[in-house]
Amino acid sequence: MAISSRSEDRRVQRTRQLLQQASLDVMQEKGFKATSIQEIAERANVSRGTFYAHFVDKYALLESLLHEEVFQNLISPLPPVSQWDKKTLQRFIRLLLEHFRDVQRQCHPLGAIDPLIERFFQEAVAGLLLMWLKQKRREEVRGTVPMETIAQTMSWAIVGAALQWSLEPATIPSEQMAENVLLTLMEGVERLAPDALPK
């Protein structure tokens, strides 16, 4: 019984992997919007019914890919969120920059990718930052701005910088860009460029 269940689990996992790889192949050729479920199923050599047994639609498939990608490429090289500090946050920003640059090189231009992908990364980054902020003792978190707002604002700044940096010729190395983004987030415009804002 247990052996049969394990082999079924492996078959399910293998089919999911086939569908994920097929979707990546088709998306690289056509972009996400133009990719159809029929093409993914044909490329994976399965029926549409098999596709729907694993995923509700192509957005659910994309979300599963992005979750795995975020974990493997961005989170697993880092210590647990409870141990994050400025140096770890800078490393995370650098990993995100390099990830978007790699995607830009391999696929259609990021500008052509559905905004769902950008939103997914923004929400994933916001979730990580919020966990990090909540790990801090309350007395270490000063001011009246809610932690959720801080995490959301930081995540849009980080993801936006990563998207923009990946679209431009890499004139600034990822390590320097990550440091620039971190300094802007941690010190703010008023301190870095005091004459830029009207009094």
Structural account:
- The mean pLDDT is 82.
- It is built from 8 helices and no strands.
- It folds into 2 domains: 2-55, Homeodomain-like (Arc Repressor Mutant, subunit A), CATH 1.10.10; 61-192, Tetracycline Repressor, domain 2, CATH 1.10.357.
- Helix content is 72%, strand content 0%.
- Helix 6 packs across helix 7.
- The radius of gyration is 20 Å and the shape is elongated.
- The protein is an all-alpha fold and 199 residues long.
Kindly provide the radius of gyration, computed on alpha-carbon positions and rounded to a whole number of angstroms. 20 Å
Mean pLDDT across all residues, rounded? 82
Number of helices: 8
- What is the number of independent domains? 2
Helix content: over 70%
Termini Cα gap: 74 Å
Strand content: under 5%
Number of strands: 0
Largest sheet entry? none
Structural class: mainly alpha
- Which regions are unreliable across 5 or more consecutive residues at pLDDT < 50? none
Task: Report the CATH C-level class of the largest domain.
Answer: Mainly Alpha
Provide the CATH topology of the largest domain: Tetracycline Repressor, domain 2
Do you know the CATH architecture of the largest domain? Orthogonal Bundle
Order of helices and strands: HHHHHHHH
3D shape: elongated
